[in-house]
Amino acid sequence: MSTSLTGAPLRIAVPNKGSLSESAVEMLREAGYRTRRDSKELVVTDSDNDVEFFYLRPRDIAVYVGTGTVDAGITGRDLLLDSGSPAVEVMPLGFGASTFRYAARAGAATSVADIAGQRVATSYPGLVRADLEKAGVAADVVRLDGAVETAITLGVADVIADVVETGATLRSQGLEVFGDPILRSEAVLIGRAGRSGEEDGAGATPGFGVLHRRLTGVITARSYVMVDYDCPAELVEKACAVTPGLESPTVSPLADPSWSAVRAMVPRRGVNRVMDELYELGARAILVTDIAACRI
Ligand SMILES: Nc1ncnc2c1ncn2[C@@H]1O[C@H](COP(=O)(O)OP(=O)(O)OP(=O)(O)O)[C@@H](O)[C@H]1O
Ligand SMILES: O=P(O)(O)OC[C@H]1O[C@H](OP(=O)(O)OP(=O)(O)O)[C@H](O)[C@@H]1O
Ligand SMILES: [Mg+2]
């Protein structure tokens, strides 16, 4: 079924490599879109959904969306902000989480103020300049393409500012983070400025609202499970308070009128505590199943 009856297909930019690529492609596949079969494919046409996918460098995606040549993209919040592109974050996607932080040799600095007059190596000069400016600190920003942790070892910089996930790369170079995190990042869906997000409003590219709803559906399907259980009829009200669902739980009669069946969506995290609570209340045959897909 086509999501747009008129006009050009929706153009979506996807990271072609790096930390975000695999999870972004997996999310689009779960959302029912066609994805590339091998890593050399740069453009994929999904005519069933009236969408074209462009596999681009994650750093370039905000630039393409900002100029309007592509309608939507998946990239990191840090890359979006660093680019200075007018593209806007539409929704977080729940993967690729990291912090963006200053680091130096142990004891060399404790706050951003200590960077004054020093050299800061980074692949994200836009983010770093903005943070230094906000703090009123003057320092030299040295732009490097990657592996910035080595810049201090090689004497190119006194301080670095980089993506930190586990901290293993920093530790390997004898570095420690200092100061507050500059940013908390994760993968985000981005669109052009003025994009309302959920709706295909007047002037919006057809299909954008569908993309937004589908990705929201994937996140919901991942973060909720379906819980079914049998409950003594007189306890249904108390049980429903434990599993209120999104709108309201489904309550159905059983052949034995002294029992009811209850069905509700429950956040995946904490579902075992919910099951324990239901059991203690008197519910039995408590079953938990994954949700393959949903539209909320
Ligand atoms: N452990 C991680 N290492 C690097 N980036 C991460 C990590 N976890 C999440 N990210 C996010 O991935 C994005 C950067 O992607 P990536 O590092 O793959 O791009 P790149 O540096 O341009 O490419 P490459 O590293 O392949 O040269 C950023 O949004 C960053 O926050
Ligand atoms: O805290 P960690 O779990 O160690 O992860 C963070 C490291 O991973 C990224 O490097 P990447 O592999 O993207 O290489 P790059 O520096 O060349 O971009 C990032 O730039 C850090 O160096
Ligand atoms: Mg990288």
From TrEMBL:
Cofactor or coenzyme needed: Mg(2+)
Pathway: Amino-acid biosynthesis; L-histidine biosynthesis; L-histidine from 5-phospho-alpha-D-ribose 1-diphosphate: step 1/9
Main location: cytoplasm
Species of the source: Lapillicoccus jejuensis
Residues of the Histidine biosynthesis HisG C-terminal domain: 221-292
Gene label: hisG
Protein name: ATP phosphoribosyltransferase
Keywords of the record: Amino-acid biosynthesis, ATP-binding, Cytoplasm, Glycosyltransferase, Histidine biosynthesis, Magnesium, Metal-binding, Nucleotide-binding, Transferase
EC number(s) given by UniProt: 2.4.2.17
